[in-house]
Structures are given as C-alpha cells and as structure tokens.
Amino acid sequence: MVAASRRVWIVRNAWLEWSTFDVQFHRLIEEAATVGIAASVTSSDWVAAHLDSLAQDELPDVALAYDKDVLVLSLLESRGVRVLNPVDAIRVCDDKAATYLALRALGIAQPRSVIVPLRFRPLDASEWGASHTLAAAEELGYPLVVKPTRSSWGKGILRVDSRDELLAALVAAEDRDVLIQAWHPGGSDDYRLFVVGRRVVAAMQRHAPVGQLAANVSAGGRAEAFTPTAEQARLAVAAARGLGLDVAGIDLLIDGDRAVVLEVNSNAQFVGLEEATGCNVAAEIVAQVVSIMGW
User: Fold this and answer.
1) Could you tell me if 33 and 27 are in contact, meaning their C-beta atoms sit under 8 angstroms apart?
2) Which of 276, 272, 269 is nearest to 217 (CA)?
3) pLDDT tens across 74-111, in order?
C-alpha cells in the first residue's frame, strides 16, 4: 500500500502537449509506485488556481518540476513543498546568459561568450555596427553562434559566418535577449550527461541532422550511448552541483581532451536517453527523491 505521506506531484505546463512528456510522466509514476510513492500529474495552471484553497495535508511532499514557471513553483515552495529542482536553480538555468555568468563564477569551462546588453527598442544594422557588442563578438572570431537566452529544444539558434550575418541576426532579435558564443571545434554534435545527485547516471552522444545546429533528439537528432571520461563526468557534476540542481541534463562539447559546458538543463527530458542507453533514468530520479526526503 502507498503511504499517504509519500506524495509527489509531477508539474507540467497545461498548454505544452507532447507525447514524449506523457511517456516520461508514466515512467516516473511507474517507478515511484515500486517504492511506495503516490505520484500524479498536475498542471501549473491548476496549481496556480487552487493551491491557496488546499489544506496542508492535501499538498504533496515533493513536486517534480517539468514546467519552468518559476512563479507557480514558488507558490509550492512557499507552502513547504520540496520542489525538484529548486526554484532558484530553475530560474538561473532558464536564462542562458545567467547560466553562463553563474558557471563562469564557478570557474567551469564554457565557450567564450558575449552577453548582448538590454535594449529598450529594436536596433537597426547601423546601430549594431557601431556598437561595442559587435566589436567584442568579432574578437571571438567567426563563425559564431547566436542563441536566444530563453529557448528550448535548440529553437532559434543560428550559426553566423560573417559580419553581415551577425548584424542580420541581431536585428532580427529585435529587443529579445540573446547570447553570442564562439563556435566550438566540436561542431553541431554534443554530449548529454544526465546527473542525478552527485553522479552521472547515463550519457549519450547526439548527432544533429544535416543542416541543423541543434542535436536534440526531440528535434530529429540521432543519439547513441556514450561513456564519459572521469574528467568529463566531474565537469558535469560540478556544473549541476554548483547551480544547486538535484537532477540535470548537462550538455558538453568535446574536442579531443578538452570539454566545455554548452548548456545546463534543469527540466531535462529523459525518454530518448533511456532508449539510447538502456539506463532506468526514471528509477534514478525516484531514488534521488527518496534520498532527499529520507524515506
């Protein structure tokens, strides 16, 4: 029988529908049940509307956050629910520029980057051409990568090979926040290391489709199991722990013996990872919940 005190909500976005999410949530519910945890799926929409009306004993002990709505997740934390990952960590990881700054402060290797400052209106090509931002970006050397600071599944990422292409990308961004990074010799392939607690529990190499930058499996990338070196695993764990994450997907670029952290995912999907590696990632996440809560 499932103990009433072991209750977990899997919090999703009500308006982001994708069959892979359904598979992932089913896997978590299935694995939670094997250790006596009652897990169920709810939406951030429902939480925002009903949380204040719930008695304390109607709340979960833990909320697994598969929505990045930090305001709604903060409501759960304010009621004493242990959100995994913590809201402050999700807030940083949802902003690629903030992630870059946080990892830089930790001394963790990353691609060289230029943060594009806040604009209160779109700039035209002549304004960008006269900017210090453009000059700093060109010091990195072409090709460059221009990416939105808030995006998922590789959406909106561009490779630019000249000043004209960089200016066009900056103009197209209008007043949206973007980050400019040096192109890494690793190219479009990357390596996803899945960290749970203080361990890399599974890893895969992802190959981008021809003509695309994003290697995400959800965007059509091809994945295969990968065994990281001890140093690569250490780098991934250091990034996750440094940002306060209990569970994280750490994306590395690797060139020979050198690895850098490309991105940190606080709400990482794992269905493709389980398929590529055979690792029971859902069970690892549930085990981490048990460890955190002392169950």
Assistant:
1) no
2) 272
3) 999 999 999 999 999 999 999 999 999 999 999 999 99
Alpha helices in the chain (DSSP H): 19-34, 44-50, 70-78, 87-93, 96-105, 125-129, 132-140, 163-173, 230-242, 271-277, 281-293
- Report the 10 Å Cβ neighbour count for 1: 5
Task: Name the burial class of residue 193, with classes exposed (0-12), middle (13-18) and buried (19+) by CB atoms within 10 angstroms of its CB.
Answer: buried
Tens-digit pLDDT profile for residues 175-205: 999 999 999 876 678 999 999 999 999 999 9
Q: Is 83 helix (H, G, I), strand (E, B) or coil?
A: strand
**Residue 37 burial class via C-beta count within 10 angstroms: exposed 0-12, middle 13-18, buried 19 and up:** buried
Q: How many CB atoms lie within 10 A of CB 201?
A: 21
Which parts of 93-233 are beta strand (E)?
A: 113-115, 144-148, 158-160, 178-182, 190-196, 199-207, 222-225
207: tokens are 């190959």
pTM > 0.85: yes or no = yes
Tell me how far apart the alpha carbons of residues 140 and 276 are, in angstroms, rounded to a whole number. Answer: 35
**Beta carbons of 21 and 67 less than 8 angstroms apart:** no
Interior CA angle at 137 toward 133 and 138, to 5°? 120
Ordered domains of the chain (ranges, CATH): 7-84 (3.40.50), 91-109+186-291 (3.30.470.20), 113-182 (3.30.1490.20)
